[in-house]
Design a protein that fits this description.
This protein is about 40% helix and about 15% strand. The chain contains 17 helices and 14 strands.
Length: about 375
């Protein structure tokens, strides 16, 4: 299994790494455990790899950081699990300020600066890249089909499993708490944290009202809010804020929360095989992954008005009109959408309908929207801005 995973070429992510290195000397690669950070980073051409979980590697780096950087065997270094070092941000700052030809990829389980281990966020010296579960476009490289991707999820080993990897999901939850949360954030209430994560996975894709979860989790709303921030920082959930400019007509405060992986959503919901009615929700998660891969999480919102009309995602890039994006499993099930309600408030907005049976972007004049498959979503968004 491990040999097979090493042979997969994740071209999209390799291109993102090269692009980031052209802009900044430090690339901070985040992603949940077992997402494939190590496999991806070890496959980089002409890069010297150091596993900071190994005591020998830590000693080599920490005893003389400047000497280590000065004698680097390559102009490209990978520092895997860099948060295991005593002063990781100091090393990266020295590299950026005093070794301008070096390019460093550092991996970690949370956003830089989210934990107590980082005293410097390296502003102006770094780019950040969040590695996501296997994207729709990558399925052929992994020899997997769409239904398996939805049920097993996009962690490479889970995706390649012959049967539903239930034990692996449970073991991941234990390791996530013990290795990532405890070491980086020093939280105390394991039962509360795990229960909150399970609830969020079960309710993935829905509006999140933490006050309604306090009795189930056995903790205050403030504690749950703190834990939600940690889950977001580690990439275990994606929190979308509402897109709005009219408080009288639109929801303006309540977030929408998505679990990071469809396999874990299925695991939390007790699904071991998929029914027809399950595909739509899981497909929505894959569309969100594609948007995040191309545009980053900070530009993605959802929309809902007080009459409960909604649009799944709103892409709002700085200085550009918003693009409303609806997700449907099949084009025949699309029917009427709430695009028009959104367009009444935002007449310059683009409209994109993305379906599992869609192909290249197509402008449907009758419904005034771009219809597309997931592989061409980024292209469809650009076309929608011009339509």
């Amino acid at each position: 299994m491990q040999f097979y995973l090493h042979m997969v070429n994740r071209d999209f992510w390799n291109q993102q790494i090269e692009k980031a290195w052209k802009e900044r000397p430090i690339l901070w690669l985040t992603g949940v455990r077992r997402i494939g950070k190590t496999t991806l980073s070890r496959g980089l051409e002409e890069a010297a790899y150091y596993d900071c979980e190994l005591p020998r590697a830590r000693r080599q780096i920490e005893e003389d950081p400047e000497g280590f950087l000065d004698q680097a065997p390559s102009q490209r270094l990978v520092l895997d699990e860099v948060h295991r070092l005593e002063q990781p941000s100091e090393l990266l700052k020295i590299a950026a300020d005093h070794f301008p030809k070096l390019r460093i990829l550092a991996t970690g389980s949370s956003t830089l600066g989210a934990s107590h281990r980082f005293r410097d966020t390296l502003a102006g010296r770094k780019r950040e890249l969040h590695l996501l579960p296997v994207l729709f476009r990558e399925l052929p490289a992994f020899g997997a089909n769409l239904e398996t991707r939805l049920l097993h999820g996009g962690l490479p080993e889970n995706l390649s499993a012959k049967t539903f990897p239930e034990k692996d999901f449970a073991e991941w939850m234990d390791a996530f708490w013990a290795r990532d949360i405890q070491e980086l954030f020093r939280l105390e209430k394991r039962a509360v944290f795990i229960r909150l994560l399970e609830l969020l996975l079960t309710q993935s894709g829905q509006l999140c009202e933490l006050a309604s979860m306090t009795s189930t989790c056995g903790a205050s709303r403030q504690t749950l809010a703190n834990y939600l921030n940690v889950l977001e920082a580690t990439g275990a959930v994606t929190v979308l804020r509402p897109f709005s400019s009219n408080p009288r007509k639109e929801i303006v405060s309540m977030p929408k929360v998505y679990g990071f992986d469809t396999g874990f959503v299925c695991f939390a919901r007790g699904w071991r095989e998929l029914r027809r009615e399950d595909f739509g929700l899981l497909w929505e998660h894959l569309v969100l992954d594609e948007l995040r891969a191309h545009f980053g999480p900070g530009s993605i919102f959802y929309w809902r008005d007080k009459q409960k009309r909604k649009v799944d995602f709103i892409l709002a890039l700085r200085g550009e009109p918003p693009v409303a994006i609806e997700c449907k499993w099949k084009i025949r099930s699309a029917g009427a959408t709430h695009f028009q309600a959104f367009a009444t408030l935002y007449p310059k907005a683009g409209r994109v309908l993305v379906t599992a049976d869609g192909h290249e972007p197509f402008y449907n004049r009758k419904r005034n929207r771009i219809e597309t498959g997931l592989s061409h979503l980024a292209e469809a968004v650009q076309l929608a801005k011009q339509t």
